[in-house]
Amino acid sequence: MRHPAPALRLLAALGGSALASATMGWRRRPQWVLHRWARRILHRLGVEARLASPVPEGGQLWVSNHLSWLDPVVFLSLRPSGALAKAEVAAYPLIGTGARKAGLRFVVRDDPFSRAAALKTLRRDLRGGLPFLLFPEGTTTTGEALAPLREGGIRMAYRLGIPVLPFHLGGADAQYPWVGDASLLPHLRGLARARRTRVSVYPGPVLDPAAFPDEARFVAAIRSHLTRPPEGAVINPEKGS
């Protein structure tokens, strides 16, 4: 009997863990389901998120630059949270099923009506006190430069008086980023071959809208933190998530 390729076995394992998590009370506690699901996936993939410093408290909205489809999984493993993802994630084999059941929100990036609906939902969630995760670039990059930001969610946080905690992702192993039109299965094969994949997570300070005179300066401060690690930040090689 021929055994399936490692990447296919990995994909099946990911789907199994996602579906198992999604059946455990997801209607009542979708953010906690996403949190458990994310931790299981990182463990199965051998992905290690290395925090440069403790995550500050008080940032209801987390924002980060965007390197990979794994980025939301990394942050959801750190705290229960709502999250917004591109619509394509819902169609990923097996993984998408668990994500849909666990309550991940989806947006069609090139559809203005979908983006408007996503912002309306985000506004409701933020006003309701839900912790939320956002990638304002709207697409993945290699991390060498920040893509133009879709500022709607950040500006909404300013108007609602919601504190924002910016993060910078960097120092990732070569197989971590997933950029452009690369397909999922070859990417998973790379992760499977590596067995261990690291990405460095640099928390910035919590930014309170009340400390900024206008939206533009608030957005500029967040952009600055997304672009590069905090000055003097050093990753401890022994410190993981």
TrEMBL record:
The keyword Transmembrane applies. GO terms for molecular function: lysophosphatidic acid acyltransferase activity. It is found in: Membrane. Residues 60-172 form the Phospholipid/glycerol acyltransferase domain. One of its GO terms (biological process) is lipid metabolic process. It comes from the Bacteria. The keyword Membrane applies. Its main location: membrane. Keywords: Acyltransferase, Lipid metabolism, Membrane, Transferase, Transmembrane, Transmembrane helix. GO terms for cellular component: membrane. This is 1-acyl-sn-glycerol-3-phosphate acyltransferase. It comes from Mesoterricola silvestris. The lineage of its organism: Bacteria, Pseudomonadati, Acidobacteriota, Holophagae, Holophagales.
